[in-house]
Amino acid sequence: MELGEMVEVKLFRFDPTIDQQPRYETYKVPYQSKMRILGALRYIADELGVEFAFRDYCGINRCGCCGVKVNGVPMLACWEPAQPKMVIEPLDNFKHIKDILVDRDEFDAMIERLNPRLVRRKVYPGFPEEITHEEMLSTFKLLDCIECGLCTSACPAVREVGLEVFSGPAAYVKLAMRALDPRDEGERTRTIVDNGVFHCVSCLNCTEVCPQGIDVFQDAIEPMKRIAVSQKAYKGHQAFNAVKETIKEYGDVNPLVLIKKVRGIWAIKDLGLAVKLGLKGKLTISQSANPGLSEINRTIEATEVKK
Amino acid sequence: MRDTVKSLEKEYLQCDVLVIGGGMAGCYAGICAAEKGLKTILISKSLVGKSGCSRHATNVAGGPPHMYLSIEERRKLASMAVKAGTPQSKKEMTAEQKEYLNRTAAYYGHYLVDQDYLLDGNKWAEQNFFSYLESRGLYFRRISDGRVLSNTGSAHSKVTWAPRQGQTGPQLMDLLRHEVIASETKVIEECMAISLLTKNGEVHGTIALDMRKGKLFIITAKATLLCAGHSANTATRTTATREMYGDGWWLAYKAGAELANLEMHYIHCVDTKDPITMNQHCYPNPNPNTDKSPHIVDSEGEFIFTPDMFKQGQTVMYHLQVKRVIQKIFEGKAKPDGGYYSSYRHMINETDAEYLRAKRVFDKLGYNIAIEPIENALCWEMCEGGVRCDLKTMQSSLPGLYAPGSTGAHGLSAFQRCMYDATLAVDHAMKRCLEMRIPSSDSSQVVSEEARLLGYLKTEPKNGYRPSIIQTRIRKIIYETLVPIKREKKMKESLEELKKIKDELVPKMSLESTSLNFNTGWMNAIDLDTMIGVSELQILGSLERKESRGPFFREDYPYVDNENWIVSNIVKIVDGAPKFYQEPVELKYVEPDEKGKVDYFKVAY
């Protein structure tokens, strides 16, 4: 946008303690150089005197409090550029307080429930302890998290099952930050499984919205799933391992082998289904190994959880 | 619309220690007090650890010298002795301590800070600060051989990061947030202290407003720790977070405590000009892992900070930056709010997002730093002054009230100092707690404060001024008056203008609604009272100091006056009005060479 142009903001207004229903108010804001969404919101508050409820502290992607939904996408108002037309609404998957302000209590409780603190059992040796950057790499990728909650807000699994069942990607980032830290000696496996990480549908929304550029799915959620499976702490671990073994063996998902591995003798119950699948060509009796098998195995090895 | 609110719901709480503020000092005080078994409540105006000035701090200075050795080298050296204790006289001071004092007392304190306090705090920090944080999981950035990364990896430049330059505050405060939440301390967030409870000249707790419910907390405590920060959102450009208006100062001042050196406030010289909502600091020091620094140039492309200014500790001291920019403003080659630049063109390879948080900001803002410079502007930053304390106990001039961290008047705070202060305050508060019972609250004070708050809670849809619009006007006044050049005439005009705002606009203030549910306008109205009060005190303090020193520059007194002004510039309320007086500062170990009046621009402190 250029100086002198006007930004049009449609702001969600709703005070549940006095209003019957939500409304949208429209404001025109003159564009300023390098303007962020926050610039428009502050103009509405400071120059137009509109008293909407909102958390606005640092202005520079440090506090993680100004998350809002802009034209349907969760983002930090301080961080993303102002757009010519913006509909600004409160974040999804949070309880609403007023206007574009949400209740963070449940979200914060999830982070606490997963224990975001380093657990040491050995005596701390004193500063500086003997660690190298290479040893810290897995956790280093997650240190940027400022607990803004955008990932949890964008998560369809959270929307479906609720935070009580799946604590959400943000809480798992904080957990992974500790679980992957070579210094951590906490018992994390039970926590990983009990807080619903397997509800994650691998949609990558979390990664996409992270204002810190954390690959939430790849660097936090996936390693946590892997730990749970490798520790056989997750009752679905058989299926996970079966898929992995089949791929290791054939370089592909071999449905017959997979069924045998997961269901064992009880696969016989599904004979009817197997026949149907067979007729449609979905089940082949023999399957040759993928020509890129060794490459695939190298990839699998490279992605194993390392701490 | 509901009827006019006639009274507010009240909840009475009691505790041994009440902490007001959730930054570094507040969180650590909450943690320490709980560890000592004291019944502790911490209230925070916003979210604990997420707001306030600590979140903005970007580097950590100091640390034991062996942190710059590789793991192998450290193993060889069993341990390196930490410095000796506080010296008794000038003769016993080690060269290292002298160097430290010269750096802090002179450059960062301009000889206005107690030198024993500096030494004791430094010693405490070396032994406790890094080890506490690392033991709790903070990651100070290492390189492959296990060395802690610094500007150039050399032992001379004692600045480190967790884990990137520019990112330490969020890392550290998230850690402390979780530590204090896990402690026994009761944490109440989004709860704003309205005034201190006082009785017979002692402080007995606070009256606070729960912003989510519009409910009053009346919290009585044996000891009250004010940890509300220093910088204030009272100027157009500021590094303060948006909820900060110098609340700690105003609470203490109204209760009758002594404040000192409010005029000594720092200015960030090289923050990005645009967008105005975001102040990214363009660090005038070598980037991490390199020995190259950005070029800071004026409107004609001449260096503002010349290469020789980078020698001292490899970073250009803040007050020296201010001096240079002021000279450039006089030459017409820079303006307070723009017209000078930071350039990274010569060091694009040294600008790595892995080490440098700022790089991500520049990228996000669409600055191509390989070809274009970044326009800078002056930004109101932290303060050296504040609530005057006994520096062994952190107790203010009012018994029961403590001001650890940057709310206090004990010089420029850093993380380490905030933590040290917190331990002092908690230690002394503990003694006090053992000696007394929980005081009772004075109901007349609650009645008058409730009436004041309800007085703001009114709407007049057609007439009246919104508090936020008045606030915006004050921010402009303060920025023009105090950043960075102070002139008597302008300051007096601004005082007049503030008085006019107070007399004419404030009584006509009205809000959008009288809702008790997170009523932003109501909070603005309460903040406005603080904002006007703090702004007046800062202007009055600036008028009082008739010299220039450190970051403080008066055009009408452009000299450092060591004969008359190595003093604490103290103010307290007497018969409802501010009364200023000065007390000399003892120069116990190091003192300036210059005795009389010297050109402000020619001295290095």
Features:
heterodimer, A: 307 residues, alpha+beta, Ubiquitin-like (UB roll), Fumarate Reductase Iron-sulfur Protein, Chain B, domain 2, five-stranded mixed sheet, two-stranded antiparallel ribbon, 13 helices, 7 strands, B: 605 residues, alpha/beta, FAD/NAD(P)-binding domain, Flavocytochrome C3, Chain A, domain 1, Methane Monooxygenase Hydroxylase, Chain G, domain 1, 3 domains, four-stranded antiparallel sheet, 21 strands, 32% helix
Structural topology:
The complex is a heterodimer of chains A (307) and B (605).
Chain A: E1 6-13, E2 23-30, H1 37-46, E3 67-70, E4 73-76, E5 85-89, E6 95-98, E7 101-103, H2 105-113, H3 133-140, H4 150-154, H5 156-161, H6 169-179, H7 189-194, H8 205-209, H9 216-230, H10 237-250, H11 255-263, H12 271-279, H13 293-303
Parallel strand pairs in A: 1-5
Antiparallel strand pairs in A: 1-2, 3-4, 3-5, 6-7
Helix pairs in contact in A: 2-6, 6-9, 10-11, 10-13
Chain B: E1 10-20, H1 24-35, E2 40-43, E3 60-61, H2 71-76, H3 95-108, H4 115-135, E4 159-160, H5 168-182, E5 186-188, E6 191-199, E7 202-210, E8 215-226, H6 247-255, E9 259-260, E10 265-272, E11 295-297, H7 318-331, E12 340-343, H8 357-365, E13 374-383, E14 386-387, E15 401-402, H9 415-435, H10 443-456, H11 467-482, E16 485-486, H12 488-505, H13 520-544, E17 553-554, E18 559-561, E19 567-574, E20 577-584, E21 597-599
Parallel strand pairs in B: 1-2, 1-8, 2-5, 8-15, 16-17
Antiparallel strand pairs in B: 3-4, 6-7, 7-8, 9-14, 9-19, 10-13, 11-12, 12-13, 18-21, 19-20
Helix pairs in contact in B: 1-5, 1-9, 4-9, 6-13, 11-12, 11-13, 12-13
Briefly, what is this?
The complex is a heterodimer of chains A (about 300) and B (about 600). Chain A has helices at about 35-45, 105-115, 135-140, 150-155, 155-160, 170-180, 190-195, 205-210, 215-230, 235-250, 255-265, 270-280, 295-305; strands at about 5-15, 25-30, 65-70, 75, 85-90, 95-100, 100-105.
